Amino acid sequence: MARITLVRGDITAQRVDAVVNAANSSLLGGGGVDGAIHRKGGPEILAACRELRASHYGGGLPTGQAVATPAGRLEARWVIHTVGPVWSAREDRSELLASCYRESLRVAGELAARTVAFPAISTGVYGWPMADGARIALRTVREASAESVEEVRFVLFDEAAYEVFAEAADA
Ligand code: ADP
């Protein structure tokens, strides 16, 4: 089973085999993690995303799925783009959020990645409560690690998010 580590920091600064992007279904960039990855990684990532749109995802990448591109100028080999669900108080979308982690790890395994960095998917613009997002992330990764993956690193952007993940990891 993969080792799970928690760090406070910027996901675009991680030296890992694969960085997971909290993308939107257009694959054409956005705010938050997505914007930061494209800004720092440069145009190679967007060009690869455009090709994927043209070849496979004309209607957009469906929520809960994951797909890889090169990582451009990031200190990583690949970016794995996944589309988290928007939080809903009316509808339970937990399975879609779990699917993001599971599918990203499956893609990481296909790439034979040994180290994978995740942000807290859906907990920014998409509004998912951090504690619930952390619980789903940790549980799913514990249950679903891919064979090649030795380390799954959660990269939390601020101290509050880090604390919430640390508490969920201890629970
Ligand atoms: P989503 O649309 O899936 O909610 P966001 O990018 O808006 O995605 O936010 C996801 C989480 O990533 C939030 O908790 C946000 O604070 C955090 N975040 C934003 N920028 C970075 C970054 N550069 N590195 C790591 N985490 C980040």
Automatic annotation (TrEMBL):
It comes from the Bacteria. Residues 1-171 form the Macro domain. CDD domains: Macro_OAADPr_deacetylase. SMART domains: A1pp (SM00506). PANTHER family: GANGLIOSIDE INDUCED DIFFERENTIATION ASSOCIATED PROTEIN 2-RELATED (PTHR11106), MACRO DOMAIN-CONTAINING PROTEIN (PTHR11106:SF27). This is O-acetyl-ADP-ribose deacetylase. It comes from Streptantibioticus parmotrematis.
